[in-house]
Design a protein that fits this description.
Distance between the termini: 22 Å
CATH class: Alpha Beta
Largest sheet: 8 strands, mixed
Order of helices and strands: HHEHEHEHHEHEEHEHEHHHHEHHEEH
CATH topology: Amidase signature (AS) enzymes
Bound molecules: glutamine
CATH architecture: Alpha-Beta Complex
Number of strands: 11
Number of helices: 16
Shape: globular
Length: about 500
């Protein structure tokens, strides 16, 4: 039998429907691949028993002709989604022993539709980071090899200090690496400032951050509640659309989830884009942008033009304030959300001589450096005397950023095309200990979308001279993810897929 892990989600679904293999065989193939890829560190917890039990149940439903949309499809879950009875850590020591008694809405909808859980995926601690290097479980290795590396050199590095191997992006680095390495057919992820789109761009995979309110946040460990959204990372645009159709929907348990019908997103894949107007925002042509990124961007526009879309220049004048404003708003909300980790209610508890000491010891030992940095920044910008100067101003900028997009869409633009990231994937440890602001610059093209609450799709547009994937980003109107899937499938058809040969 061919290697079932090489299939796309859509191909696997057809194979299951055509009885070419069973859900149990599909799960077993993936479990074996996960075991053989442990050194990549994509999974922080493998759940083979659940996987096989769920696959068995899927097979009986398929047999009876009762299969759901994702019946028998094995997926990985970012360790930010609460999974009932299955350890959920947010890749933090402070939640190292946390076993939720409830299931997140998004994952429960995936199981409702027949998906099979393979395990929990690594991420930056509390989803704070752009390289997966802030994880308490250590870095994840991008299965895409640096240029001129052969398998032998890569295996030696993997067994050693991992220097020179690439990061898979973050914070959803386990999700992107697992999809790229064929360790699942799709993965859940979250995006507060780029954590779905940047990892997708770094690994040659496809990821979508839906409109704020499209998916329920219930049962997802909160980072910055006004920015957080769940979404999928998968091998193709169609696979993403299939996963999102299950993940989306109104949930009374999240008052910010929107009561709108969920379209069949897959139906938008391959739909004509003739006559669509695509905006190219001039402010995204940032200083120092590598020529290869600029060329990719132009190539993306040419592909859409060839499919009948109209390309126009647009202006989003407040773009340059988005990154500084994000790095005020996001830490502010994080400092408030993370106050709940006190060593009393759940997770790690480090005893102290009194209750204050217990809080201090627990938080000092439980949180990593980047999370502490965010809590300190967030507490500072919210404190009396500084609130007006920082937090309030950042919120005003946020309103202006949102208005920039509204003006562009009001002028008849259907979607906006930008690069997803300012560079290709960088090396492990290359940036981690440098100036944190350097790491934050990764998010320059993605944070605007969260600040405005819009949907954003990232997908491979090509490779750089070294053969590394480069991502394009399509930004849509609120709740118009369908147009993004249509446009994305046009680019995918012309740019092709980027896949990593197995070397580990
Ligand atoms: N890299 C950004 C940050 O560190 C975004 C993270 C995310 O989207 N969760 O805040």
């Amino acid at each position: 039998m061919t290697d079932l892990t090489q299939l796309t989600l859509t191909e696997a679904r057809e194979g299951l429907a055509g009885k070419q293999f069973t859900a149990v065989e599909l799960a077993e193939a993936h479990l074996a691949a996960i075991e053989a890829a442990r050194a990549l560190n994509a999974y922080v917890l493998e759940t083979p028993e659940q996987a096989l039990a769920m696959a068995k149940a899927a097979d009986s439903r398929l047999q009876r002709g009762e299969g759901g949309r994702l019946e028998g499809i094995p997926i990985g879950v970012k360790d930010l989604f609460a999974t009932e009875g299955v350890r959920t850590t947010a890749s933090s020591r402070i939640l190292g022993n946390f076993v939720p008694t409830y299931e997140s809405t998004v994952t429960s909808q995936l199981w409702r539709d027949g998906a099979v859980m393979l395990g929990k995926l690594n991420n930056d601690e509390f989803a704070m980071g752009s390289s997966n290097e802030t994880s308490a479980f250590g870095p994840v290795v991008n299965p895409i090899l640096p240029a001129n590396w052969n398998a032998e050199k890569a295996r030696a590095a993997l067994a050693g200090d991992k220097k020179g191997l690439l990061v898979p992006g973050g914070s959803s680095g386990g999700s992107s690496a697992a999809v790229a390495a064929h360790l699942c057919l799709g993965a859940t992820a979250t995006d507060t400032g780029g954590s779905i789109r940047q990892p997708a761009a770094f690994t040659g995979t496809v990821g979508i951050k839906p409109t704020y309110g499209r998916c329920s946040r219930w049962g997802i460990v909160a980072f910055a509640s006004s920015l957080d959204q769940a979404g999928p990372i998968a091998k193709t645009v169609r696979d993403c659309a299939a996963l999102m159709t299950s993940m989306a929907g109104h949930d009374p348990k999240d008052s910010t989830s929107v009561d709108l019908p969920v379209p069949d997103f897959e139906a938008a894949v391959g739909r004509s884009v003739a006559g669509k107007t695509i905006g190219i925002p001039r402010e995204y042509r940032v200083e120092g942008m590598p020529a290869e990124i600029e060329a990719l961007w132009k190539k993306g526009a040419d592909m859409l033009r060839a499919a009948g879309a109209r390309i126009v220049d647009v202006s989003l004048p407040h773009t340059k304030y988005a990154l500084p404003a994000y790095y005020i708003v996001a830490p502010a909300e994080a400092s408030s959300n993370l106050a709940r980790y006190d060593g009393v209610r759940y997770g790690l508890r480090v005893p102290g001589k009194d209750i204050t000491d217990l809080y201090e010891q627990t938080r000092a030992q439980g949180f990593g450096r980047e999370v502490k940095r965010r809590i300190m920044i967030g507490t500072y910008v919210l404190s009396a005397g500084y609130y007006d100067a920082y937090y309030l101003r950042a919120q005003k900028i946020r309103t202006l950023i949102k208005k920039d997009f509204e003006d562009v869409y009001a002028s008849g633009v259907d979607a906006i095309l930008t690069p997803a990231t300012p560079s290709a994937a960088f090396g492990i440890a290359e940036m981690a200990d440098a100036d944190p602001v350097q790491m934050y610059l990764n998010d320059i093209f993605t944070v605007t979308v969260n600040m405005a609450g819009l949907p954003g799709l990232a997908l491979p547009g090509g490779t750089d001279a070294a053969g590394l994937p480069l991502g394009l980003q399509l930004i849509g109107r609120p709740f118009d993810e369908e147009t993004l899937f249509s446009l994305g499938s046009v680019i995918e058809e012309q740019a092709g897929r980027i896949t990593a040969p197995r070397w580990w």
